[in-house]
Amino acid sequence: MTDLIHDPHGGLPRLIEIMRRLRDPETGCPWDIAQDFSTIAPYTIEEAYEVADAIEREAWDDLKGELGDLLFQSVFHAQMASERGLFDIGQVADTMSDKMIARHPHVFGEESNAKSPEQQTQDWETIKAAERASRAETRTLDGVALGLPALMRAVKLQKRAARVGFDWPETGQVLDKLVEEAGELVEARDSMTPDEIEDEMGDMLFVMANLARHLGVDPEAALRRTNAKFTRRFNAVEDALEADGRKPGESTLDEMDALWEAAKLAERRKSP
């Protein structure tokens, strides 16, 4: 297998063999040998976000590397599973292939593919519901992964509940609820315990996620966009202060706020 490991065009078999060697209990890497599913899971999540970041930046060369990092995570988990006699990477691929064929009868089966995207989405949800039923996931919210980012999981929970009619019919009602939750937090913040404040804050964020869903906005994407905007504008504030020989800690809030507004104005002028 030495030739395969050093073959620059060895593709997926090369990566699988490298992973196997890294986990070899006698000659492998001590760090890799010491890992298990729970210790690697955070890296898997991180790599998925690195992929999203590269796409957001349209950094296509970076995307190739980030997809490789994410693929390595799958290979890592599959190697650990193989060592336990659970499954291997080939079975992982077969499982996904079977799932895609089953979920696309309009492509791989006898059904017509002359369907609207909306109808295909509805069919997809019907098929997934049947899959959940086969796994004895009979409750409406069963199967919504606990490990998802909280904001993303909130939206998925709300979508599931909405399918059975548990949803506000109008966006205005969601806005009213948001105002109510914000008011409760403001009015009682001085008398609440930290745990109660966290609970109320969670309620407000949950309603915000619901509002985003009603408006057809992905709240994760919206927040990433705002994070990028904040970073861009704060960098402009730092650049302006640096040109004056100062750092943020050496200026006042009023000064930084004025530079922030200038950065906003400059961005608007650049917008088409």
TrEMBL record:
Domain NTP pyrophosphohydrolase MazG-like span(s) in chain numbering: 35-108, 175-235
Record has Hydrolase as a keyword: yes
Signal peptide boundaries: none
Catalytic function, reaction form: ATP + H2O = AMP + diphosphate + H(+)
GO terms (BP aspect): dATP catabolic process; dGTP catabolic process; dTTP catabolic process; dUTP catabolic process; response to stress; TTP catabolic process; UTP catabolic process
Enzyme Commission identifier(s): 3.6.1.8
Gene Ontology MF, one: ATP diphosphatase activity
Matches recorded under Gene3D superfamilies: MazG-like (1.10.287.1080)
Superkingdom as given in the UniProt entry: Bacteria
Principal EC category: hydrolase
Pfam family, one: MazG
Keywords in alphabetical order: Hydrolase
Family designation: Belongs to the nucleoside triphosphate pyrophosphohydrolase family.
Name this polypeptide is given: Nucleoside triphosphate pyrophosphohydrolase
